Amino acid sequence: MTATRTQSITLEQFLQRPETKPASEYINGEIIQKPMPKGRHSRLQGKLCAAINQVTESAKIAYAFPELRCSFGGRSIVPDVAIFQWERIPLTVDHNVPDNFELPPDWTIEILSPEQKPNKVIGNILYCLQYGTHLGWFLDPDDLSILVFLPQQQPVLLQGEESLPVLPEIELALTVNQVFGWLKMGD
């Protein structure tokens, strides 16, 4: 994760810059480039999006977007997975998905990469909750645990066969072990 100090750049100026690979985020006046996703991160991100979208997309309940830039409240962040309830997806006049999302997700999921600082990643989840997000997951593949964040509540650390909370309208039953079980591909 690389932080770049800039001289009084605004969010609007940041959003006019070309996108970087991996994505950069704008937090407290700083441009911070996310680390390049590696194997475990990519696998978990892909499987989470697929599992959520399998039960939500056809029924138009919600949609899980991987690496979607969300700009709101003076920040521009790129959660690993941003889930929006269907009616909150800001469609264009032609009913297409827009390029710019200027609102917080309903549910945000972050997957810790070895190069990331946990408090920075958790800070993005807390920021989303402050602006109306209903649920946050922080996955730690090394610890095989998921820290769950709900508004106005203490975070809860879940492990093993503990069930993970999802948005109320989403019928998806997952345990921590099931999520991290997706990392096994050879069996």
Summarize the structure.
The protein has 187 residues and is an alpha+beta fold.
Description of the structure:
This protein has 187 residues and is an alpha+beta fold. It has one domain (37-181): tt1808, chain A, CATH 3.90.1570. It is built from 4 helices and 11 strands. Strands 4-7-8-9-10-11 form a 6-stranded mixed beta sheet, with helices on both faces. Strands 1-3-2 form a 3-stranded antiparallel beta sheet, with no helix packed on it. A two-stranded antiparallel sheet has the order 5-6. A hairpin with a 2-residue loop joins strand 5 (70-72) and strand 6. The protein is globular, with a radius of gyration of 16 Å. The mean pLDDT is 94.
Q: List SSEs in N-to-C order.
A: EHEEHEEEEEHEEEH
**What is the CATH architecture assignment?**
Alpha-Beta Complex
Distance N to C terminus: 33 Å
What share of the residues does DSSP label as strand, in percent? 25-35%
Q: Any idea what the CATH superfamily is called? A: tt1808, chain A
**Which structural class do the helices and strands define?**
alpha+beta
Largest beta-sheet details: 6 strands, mixed
Q: How many helices?
A: 4
What gross morphology would you assign? globular
The total number of structural domains is 1
* Quaternary structure annotation: single chain
CATH class: Alpha Beta
Radius of gyration: 16 Å
Low-pLDDT runs of 5+ residues are none
What is the topology, as strand order, of the major beta sheet? 4-7-8-9-10-11
The pLDDT mean sits at 94
User: What is the CATH topology assignment?
Assistant: tt1808, chain A
